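Lecture notes, continued. The same structure-token format from the folding unit now serves as the input rather than the output. Read the line below as a description of shape only.
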């Protein structure tokens, strides 16, 4: 039997490993732009770019991207992109261009109380980028962006 000495050594080893794991650099990401495109009577398209820094010497697969678009405290669109096929090259900062997200015009018009005389809809885009880290598993980075969608005047979309 080892007695109290083994327990103390295990505690020291556990604390040492925990301290090292906490100090490990982790991937970081930020939204670098959201472009409002294809504004028509059918709706608008959001094209989003994310910059991701991979501090590891091994490329990392992006396993999932989930998103939610909210306006006036209402969820207007959400979804998930699994098995994206994207990977982050080793020791590089990479800009990922996400697949376009289409918001139907009828959804935007349902937010009429938020649309003032200037015909803009304030929105918030929440993203979760999930990366598969070796030994640790899935690592999720939450991201957020606020902006506004300027709706065209009725004569210009007819």
């Amino acid at each position: 039997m080892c007695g109290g000495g083994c327990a103390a050594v295990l505690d020291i080893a556990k604390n040492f490993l925990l301290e090292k794991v906490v100090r490990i650099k982790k991937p970081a990401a930020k939204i670098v732009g959201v472009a409002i495109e294809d504004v028509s009577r059918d709706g608008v398209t959001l094209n989003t770019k994310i910059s991701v820094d991979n501090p590891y010497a091994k490329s990392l697969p992006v396993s999932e991207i989930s998103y939610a678009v909210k306006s006036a405290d209402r969820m207007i669109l959400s979804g998930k992109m699994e098995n994206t096929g994207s990977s982050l090259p080793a020791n590089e900062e990479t800009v990922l261009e996400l697949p376009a997200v289409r918001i139907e015009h009828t959804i935007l018009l349902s937010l009429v109380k938020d649309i003032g005389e200037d015909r803009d809809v304030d929105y918030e885009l929440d993203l979760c980028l999930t990366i598969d880290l070796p030994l640790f598993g899935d690592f999720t980075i939450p991201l957020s962006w606020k902006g506004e969608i300027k709706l065209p005047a009725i004569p210009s979309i007819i």
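Point for the exam: The chain is about 20% helix and 55% strand.
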